[in-house]
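Why this split exists: single-chain examples teach little about how molecules sit against one another. For that reason, every record in the complexes split bundles all components of an assembly together and asks for one structure covering all of them. Below is a record exactly as it appears in the raw files.
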Amino acid sequence: MPQNTKKSSQEKKENSQRICIVNDELLKNSDDNKPFFCQLRHPRSDDAALFAFSQSDSIVHEVLSFKEDFRSWFIGDFVQSDGSLYITSQVDPLYLVLPYLIKSAGRAMPIGQILQDEDFPETRRLCSVTMDVSCLADKKGDADLKAFKYNKDATLRWLKLKVNSVAEKLQDNHCQLSGAQVSSYIRSSKSSLNSEDDCMRFAHGVVSDYLPCSLSSELKTYLGIVDPVVHEKPTVENAPQAKKSKTQEGPLEDYSSGSKGEKKTPAQKLSIAQKKLSKVDKSGMKSISSFFGAKTAKPKV
Amino acid sequence: MFEARLAQGTLLKKVLEAIKDLLNEATWDCNENGMSLQAMDSSHVSLVSLTLNAEGFEPYRCDRNCSLGINLASMSKIFKCASNEDSITIKAGDEGDTITYVFESPNGDKVSDYEMKLMDIETDHLGIPDTTYSCVVKLPAAEFQRICRDLSQIGESVTICCTKDGVRFSASGDLGSGNIKLAQNANVDKEDEAVTIEMQEACTLTFALRYLNFFCKATPLSPQVTLSMSNEVPLVVEYKIGEMGHVRYYLAPKIEDEADS
């Protein structure tokens, strides 16, 4: 996240000025204080997205835009009708390299060749960005050649580290992850703590924003993340006290005992055959799961 | 992508008939070795374990392991639309939540395809240990079906008593009692009609007949059925599915509790 930021207007062309908050780092070592903006392929969407390189191409930032309706800027004596605010934020270049590595999977190729994209010629700039491709790929051949071969296991290991560190940060900063919340609503300290699972799931989501969809789901299984059950009913001990204490004593008059109908509604529709089965006298029969250990690996049959 | 074609579609139809009454819905686990299914009936006293090897299908393609949650009653309804001679192809995409069945007539004149929604089923796989059973009885499947049907006229449960001489099925009820005894006879010309008993130790077990009658729905699959028994463990009723797999039914025995009597 950019710590030292300053406002500067970028891309001075005729009548087109933008407001952009740029990280100082991006402006270092550049004579005219101009980072290089260009379009690259976004790893998630495969579409064009704007990125900014520092002058020596050593670091790369993504450019995010924040836009609201009915907003314009005054810039000097001009009104810029496009009221969006651009923010740069550093991004790990390996995320941008990853889709190209996956595309070249199975072959060892020099990094310069891997990072060739006809639609986005500026992709080759990534070659000079400081990064360690060996996190994602095996180095092959001579060191000077910089040839790499995609390694999925290494990639998943690396992504796991990423997710873990995001999750740690979420945990440390006590970020609220469980959706919307009224600001005046005071939660008990117990419930506001995010479980480790929540943090991992959220962190996986954050990291997935920079991953191709297929890899994102593979990472999910690799991390063992299970989707939560939506609208989980509060368990009895955690549930807030019921408002009507009367209900606990039950109604004073019970009208239902008179009617015999709808005593049992089966949870699921049973076929005629299964209804017959459910009538079988099962006295002395134990559940089959008491004979076979539940949840061992695959059954040996 | 999952795709499996079975030239002899009638086998799959019979498999469905064999399990759809016992199980409402089940998860088919597909991997490169084939398709398998494991599920308990709604009362959790019996278990069905079904395996169809990949070799039986032509072609068989399973790019990644997948679990297909299927309503078996619906699947069986759809399979009734296939003729006995048709070949059946099962297809499922990696992402989609549907499964497609394609039925082709032998000369390729008629092709019908049916799509069905998959469902989310929560299942726990039970680990079934490799047990050596004290008695393993092989008998003609039709004979076993007949015995179960006949004895269910007499009583609700059958006691199977296996000794060196043979195997005895007995039931008793309000109207009286009945016994059927089968002797070992391996030396008939037709292998399918043989009754063989492999025994380490004699055993006597009691089972609910109605469940056995449901297991007998698999009779058309195989000429022979194998009953494996040991005292106080579930009975295994196994039918081979051609050369390509088997369906096994496990049933908890009735154990008379001292508290009961």
